[in-house]
Fold these 2 entries.
Entry 1:
Amino acid sequence: MGLLLRSILKTHQQVRPVSSVQWIARRYYSGSSDITASAMVYSDYGQPSQVLRWHSYRLPALTSDTVHVKFLASPINPADVNMIQGAYPIKPTFQQLGDEKLAVGGNEGVAEVIAVGDGIDSLKVGDQVVMAKTGYGTWRTHAAGPASDFQLLPHADNVSTIQKATITVNPCTAYRMLKDFVDLKQGDYVIQNGGNSAVGQAVIQIAKAWGLKTINVVRNRPDIDQLVQELTELGATHVVTDENLGSLETRKEIKSWYGKNAPLLGLNCVGGKSATEMARYLGANGQFVTYGAMSRKPLSLPASLLIFKNISFHGFWVSKWADVHSQQERYAMLEDIIALMSDNKLVEPKWTQVKWEEESMKQSVDQGISGFATGKQVVVF
Ligand SMILES: NC(=O)c1ccc[n+]([C@@H]2O[C@H](COP(=O)([O-])OP(=O)(O)OC[C@H]3O[C@@H](n4cnc5c(N)ncnc54)[C@H](OP(=O)(O)O)[C@@H]3O)[C@@H](O)[C@H]2O)c1
């Protein structure tokens, strides 16, 4: 440290003047509101049930350039679990919550604006918002921050709180993957695995609304007929199990469905053998998009698909999409999706309510990626 800087610091330490920077910092962070927030937090990465804990703290006081929001509902998604384990590419922000620096779990949710600083005109009390970025921490009752932390949700009358709480990850992922890789025409086929996942169900419904046909691969299970019926009711054109995907008989059957119109878009949620078999169904110059790795098995691809069919392999990550696109573009997508929900073309996902209480939260988050689930787990505050 230079001599001059050292002597300036020393002088400041002795007389402790309130600099403008300190004054601003104090304005933002020192005062507390009379709202007590509670949150599921962690200070170290690890197994969710071991590192997550309940934390209560006073929400910072409102300033002219911050808003206060109250959360209405927040889901538990597979990526939330990976984030707590420290295995997700985006790391959470460890922020000052009361006396401690902690990360709040959860990435998705819907909140209502309950107070707005007088310097803000982009949001008003009563607006419903989603998070502007991944990693915000949505398993909490309240939050305070600049308006740029939040994205206004288009208004819609008959869209449920659960639909809004789960809109930014799965429906947005399905929407982008159906729109951005292949210029699909009415009647075209899309093939996907994880067809019963929340993303898969959104793909089925958005595809149907846009006049596209879907071949949906799912894992076999004792009540497979019921699953096939549920997905068909949602709008799936065909449902097949992954164990049959490679058999000659199934291959013949699937090819008879699409004839010369082979799918040009494949959506991969699972990886491993399921993904390899699915890729073989793509037509020449098809696009294979990987967005999940639920089997935790690597993707292995026969060279012939690249050499003779010129299939392209891509990854998609909705967080990255939100990072590199404007709030206006995201708002336009949310408007389209909300309109589909409002028209009952994209229905509320199956969900189970998680009790907003420490032990239930820990157990539910541990179950977050265990497979054969009965629907999205959602906390309703
Ligand atoms: N890249 C992105 O932008 C993006 C966005 C959203 C989601 N995702 C990812 O997409 C995946 C699905 O997310 P989601 O919220 O839709 O999840 P979800 O609703 O919980 O569904 C999970 C899906 O994975 C399947 N699955 C679970 N364990 C499996 C295993 N061991 N082998 C094969 N399949 C298995 C489940 O099938 P069963 O019913 O047979 O268990 C189900 O179809 C996750 O990996 C998530 O992180 C990525």
Entry 2:
Amino acid sequence: HTLFLARTAAAYGALTANRTRVSRFLRQGERVVGAVITDLESGDETEVRAKQVINATGVWTDDTQAMAGTRGQFHVRASKGVHLLVPRDRINSRTGLILRTEKSVLFVIPWGRHWIIGTTDTDWTLDKAHPALSSKDVTYLLEHVNSVLATPLVPEDVEGVYAGLRPLLSGEAAETSKLSREHLVAHPVPGLVVVAGGKYTTYRVMAKDAVDEAVRGLDEKIPDCVTHRVPLLGADGYPALWNARHRLAERSGLHVARIEHLLNRYGSLAPQLLALVAEDPSLGEALPSSDDYL
Ligand SMILES: Cc1cc2nc3c(=O)[nH]c(=O)nc-3n(C[C@H](O)[C@H](O)[C@H](O)COP(=O)(O)OP(=O)(O)OC[C@H]3O[C@@H](n4cnc5c(N)ncnc54)[C@H](O)[C@@H]3O)c2cc1C
């Protein structure tokens, strides 16, 4: 999904550069006038100049704000969340579940051939690039889900795990589950806007608020934001292609379940992949040991 956001922006003329790291900001007096970025694949450094820079670096916000010498405006804490994957046949249910816990809620969501069970909410102060689960996380999740299952799950049922970090605005609450899920936008020095906190669900509101703030720093008349009316690449034309999925399966020689998977993932851009498969049929074969994927 994040890749499709970048591709959608690029389709509207944005220049995008992934696998690059900002190593410092460019300054003209107090004003931020751009950033030095390092290509993490080649190691090359490039100067990018901009009238306004927006810092949207999630749990790394304190580190990146420190580069601008503005640490202290607000802080972002990392809260670790863990999800477990267990095979579908381990839970005899036709629907997902939402359970109340003492801290928050626990979801049990059907996902392909697995159930996703999550999540936890604990402070993380170690390497932000590598959040890792502990046996305590597994015990917590299994204990809660087992409280409603006729046949309890055991650690051996767990086939996969995910661990991620939520960027939470730092407040008075010691527990991360009580910290605000709202976002904040600030303009700590001329030329630099920072947006932090928030949720995935509200990413367009966060983007609008951050860009509106950056626009206030420009001496130009800029039209109002229209993000709420801009579909992602792949959204336009999706329902018609979904209706045509059996025909796509026939034409491509792929099973209709594969077509559905590709449509769910790439929307109306899926035919681009089917064109590649037509050129090189080996691309239409399942990945060894990972049957669900081409
Ligand atoms: C387990 C879990 C469950 C969640 N559940 C939900 C949910 O149900 N609903 C919901 O809405 N939200 C949920 N969230 C929260 C949501 O995922 C996050 O709020 C959101 O992903 C944060 O996005 P972000 O872009 O602010 O930060 P990130 O996705 O962390 O992006 C920050 C980016 O900045 C980059 N970066 C850092 N430093 C630099 C630098 N120096 N130079 C260049 N780039 C840099 C990083 O590489 C990263 O790509 C959940 C999060 C977790 C972990």
